[in-house]
Amino acid sequence: MAQVSRRKLLGAAGVAATAATLGTTAACSGGTGGTSGGGDYDMPTFQPAPELDVQPFYSSETPGMESVYTEYPKTFFKSVEREPGSGGKVTTFQLTWGDPATPLEENTYWQELNERLGVSFEPQFVPQPVFDQKFATMLASGDVPDLVFVNDQSAGNLQGIRDGAFADLSETLSGDNILKWPNLAARKEEIWQASLKDGRIYQIPSIVWALTNLPVMRTDLVDQTSIGRAPKDADELFTMLKEVSALGTGPGGQKVYGLNKYDAHPGTASMFQRLFKTGAEWQLNGDGDLVHITQTENYKAMLEWLARAWAEGIFDPVSMSPTATDIVSGAALRYDAVGAAIGGAGLSQWEADLPGATFDFFDMPGFDGSEQLVVRNVPYGRSTCVSAAAAEDEDRLTEILNVLDYLSAPFGSEEQYFIANGTEGVHHTVDAHGIPIVNPDSMIDLSVQYVGVTSGDNSYRIHPNAAPWADSFVTVMESMAQNSIARPLEGLESASQTFVTKGAQLKQLWTDFETGVITGRESIDDLQSFSDNYMSQGGTQVRDEYTQALKDAGK
Amino acid sequence: MSVSTTDAGPGTRTERAPGPSARPPPPTHTLRPRVWRERWSYTFIIPGAAFFLVFMYVPMAGNVVAFQDYSPFRGIEGSPWVGLANFNAIWTDPEIITALRNTLIIAFLQLAFAFPAPIALALLLHSLLSTKVKRLIQTIVYLPNFLSWVIVISVWQQVVGGGGLVAGLLDNFGVTGFNLMSDADNFKFLVVAQNIWKDAGWGTIIFFAAIAGIPSERYEAAAIDGASGWQRTWHITLPALVPVATLLLILNIGSILTVGFEQLLLQQPMVGADAAQVLDTFVYFRGVLGGQWGIATAAGLLKGIIGTILVLSANKLAKKMGGEGIF
Amino acid sequence: MATATVSRPPWMNPPSVWVRAIKAIVIVCIVITMIYPLVYVIAMSFAAPEQARAGVIFPTKFSLDAYRAILNGGTVVDGLRNSLFITVVGTLLSLAATSMLAWGLVRTRQVPGAKIVLVGILATMFFSAGIIPNFMLIKYLGLLDSTWSLIIPGLISAFNMIVIRNFFQGLPEELIEAARIDGAGEWRIFLQIVLPLSKPVLAVMGLFYAVAYWNTYFNALLYINDSTKWPIQVVLQQYVLAGVAIPGAVVTEGQPPPPGVTLQMAVIVLATIPILVVYPFLQRFFTSGVLTGAIKG
Fold this sequence. Notes:
The complex is a heterotrimer.
Chain A: H1 2-25, E1 68-69, E2 89-96, H2 108-117, E3 120-127, H3 131-141, E4 147-150, H4 155-162, H5 182-185, H6 189-195, E5 203-207, E6 213-218, H7 219-222, H8 234-247, E7 256-257, H9 269-275, E8 282-284, E9 290-292, H10 297-311, E10 330-331, E11 333-337, H11 338-342, H12 347-353, E12 359-361, E13 374-375, E14 380-386, H13 388-391, H14 394-407, H15 414-421, E15 428-430, E16 436-438, H16 443-446, E17 460-461, H17 470-482, E18 484-485, H18 497-519, H19 527-552
Parallel strand pairs in A: 1-17, 2-3, 2-4, 7-10, 13-18
Antiparallel strand pairs in A: 4-14, 5-14, 6-11, 6-12, 8-9, 15-16
Helix pairs in contact in A: 10-18, 18-19
Chain B: H1 31-37, H2 39-60, H3 75-78, H4 85-91, H5 96-114, H6 117-126, H7 131-142, H8 149-160, H9 165-172, H10 187-212, H11 216-224, H12 229-254, H13 261-271, H14 273-276, H15 279-288, H16 293-320
Helix pairs in contact in B: 4-16, 5-10, 5-15, 6-10, 7-10, 10-12, 12-16, 15-16
Chain C: H1 17-45, H2 49-54, H3 65-72, H4 76-104, H5 114-123, H6 131-140, H7 158-169, H8 173-181, H9 186-197, H10 199-214, H11 218-223, H12 232-242, H13 260-283, H14 290-296
Organism (chain B): Glycomyces luteolus
Main location (chain B): membrane
Family (chain B): Belongs to the binding-protein-dependent transport system permease family.
């Protein structure tokens, strides 16, 4: 044991100094060109990816809204000219789900990928259920692979970044330096900005939609109500949902309810937060002070509405169940992932699965007859970090970033086409719509490549199967985007150390009270005492740390 | 040779335990000759003891992080020492009381109901005559043990949950709103019932092994003496189960602070933390999810110390009451 | 109840009708509650994809898709082979190591130090070392990515050892003493008298060990990176995951996701079958009379 630890300490010695500095200056800087841990740098230059060769079905300048495509590109651009590697080896630590990739010897895709990358690509697949534990053992053993998938919403992963396990890439990617890696450069400044840790670049973030979920209604059920498809306010929505529950059963003898699932923020609860315009979890009140969502009047109104909905049978009694398989009823309103809804197996498939059921996107009203209020997501998704030890050698770092650059090629590029689909005729076939369909047998071969970074085009791509809903999709999404706000704390989430360590505990406290009030186990009258409890168990500290972070960021 | 049917069965112990070179101990008090005389025993003990030393005690040294603000990358040497801060964080938490109370209530109900269930089931199955039927039923009752908690809870939801089978039946009689799965008041009984359902069948196995050790001559002799079926169960089968039952009871008492983590975590959203927060879920939300290794380890240490003390006390008590104990 | 075909021991009177009726009712109730979920699991594993997606409670249309998807997978065969090795070799080694230690610790009063060892082992049931120190040990021993990392750390379970020791303590002293007087060595006594007399408990402990090895999951995920060395449970669980949406991931175009429920249920069926197959072989050890037979012979 002693020997193991000593070895580890030696490995960590190089970064110990940085780690110490970072630990104490956490949350003290969030602005551009932070200078807390290393040299000055500029935000990486944004160089958009080449345009697709098909016209968008819809495009919009509204913040939060992305272009919508219904056609698949016909030609593909080359995103990088060079061969990324020069015969070395690049190891990764990457999330996997599903069957692990076929071993290299039997995996033609992997062999081809190695050839294209010019390195021996050696991924370590980490199954999702133990990702955090594996991450911890990886850090503890001191052997940090070259490229590591990082979820900075997880306290343990964030701690790894803070402790200096990963390279500070601020100077390497500063300003025009990043143009050496055009695919890495294909992300806007706001994404870098939001993913900074202590004002420095440690992670290369993925692009992600600001609006990932939207309400979907069962039109076959809603049309039978006195309200119809467009309730104007919370009361009309209530009536609509209640009348659906009163129907009892729907097509195929399926039991139907107004709602059949409730999971706390950011789950289906977000739908009602939009309805009641409750805003972000931490928000500035009229006096410019930071308050928690539960301390607002709108939140209280929302809880009362939900509790009444529960009491009057709008909810399926199993709505709070943690296992999705328990929910077999139909619901007038669901909260679905955009990607699933507009994908090949989205709305069209749902209708096919239950003959008689019809679906459409639903435009949520505001509770008082005005517009809804939507809070946009963190503008970046999963990230990848580079091992601090590997980055000490500049040539190694260049090769690693070259490989990452290749792997994060944007949609519409030859590289991305190969990465996602392999070779035509070998790993995929092209369907009647011109869309590559990966052979089921090749799926597991392809799982080699998932390092978790995507770049460039961030559009909504509607599968031809979902094309009949394209207009309604655009209407609903545009309405959401137009009534959306960014969170005041955007990019500062991890600035509160208390939130990082106690966030889960506070979330549990909140969720427990919220579901308690809705199901009638707790009383809405206790909202104040809940709030006091929440603040005393860490909420106050979180608020103060965020207030300081906002001040430092000059917001 | 044959063993007398009235003594020396698994139920009644001889004073001297059998074991390697079990010669009557000569009255010597010096250590060295005793060790030399028992050298054979050590050849049996040392490999196993070495295993526990290397694979249990060496890694257990890592528990020192209970006194640290530990971070995996910094390691034990690089992490700051914080004294008893992690223990204080646990004890000063306002919710520790709820968590402890729920843990102890559930543990007590388990000991009272879930613990005897496999014994009762084993006796019942043992009393069946047809070997084929017996084996078939044994196989069926073992199987729930292999279902994960997610599935178990899902199945229970379908039967006793809102909109489930029972709720549907009651609906016909005009009783609405039945939902045992979200009934916080009876939740602890529900937990124990789920435990019995899942594990009682599997738990019978060990008792079958004990029953298998009863010489059938003893039943014959009892029957000749005119004992009824009930009397035979009461006077022969049950006593044969006492040693292993005592042992399991003592070990269970040591695990009193550990009640089904996954089972409770999954059901917490339905009944609320007031009813379903136990020590392990408490630590999960505070230590594990927040990346606070120190707090999680401190809680583990506390549980270990309390568990060991409880087992040693239970063992003493068992011996005082005339039982066998573990040692 | 097919009791009529069974030959009743001559010393046993037929139980009264009432007792039999009550017993039958109780047993039928137990069996029904336990068999319902099993039928449900099996039925769902065969559910047609559209029914699984639409969320029916009991499917009426069936398909083999889930099984086909799982059994076609590249690593299932590897996984089965790995698990078979771990289970067979692990169980044998565990039984040997555990029974040896248990026999050595039977006489805590006479053997100096034995009691300390026993208490020390008992304590390991309540203290755990945590993930990181265990991982570091396995790494230090060079067992990472080795199948042995799934066998050696679980070689002796304190619980199983104490239970076996408890049974050893109940063995008839006279028999062992007699053998000793006949001049049998300690190893011979252990191998030829103690172990044969303990068949029922060894069978039970063998089952406990085998099930534990067969279900190896978490350690395999921590210690084995090479997916061709994964045991079957890990491979199977990955299929369950495949049906679950990945947090934070954007779903792209392509195939409809496999219906998670059917895969999950098929995985349970596949993972449990081996235990169903092995169990009847062990059951014969649980029949009365083993001990007496051995003593008489």
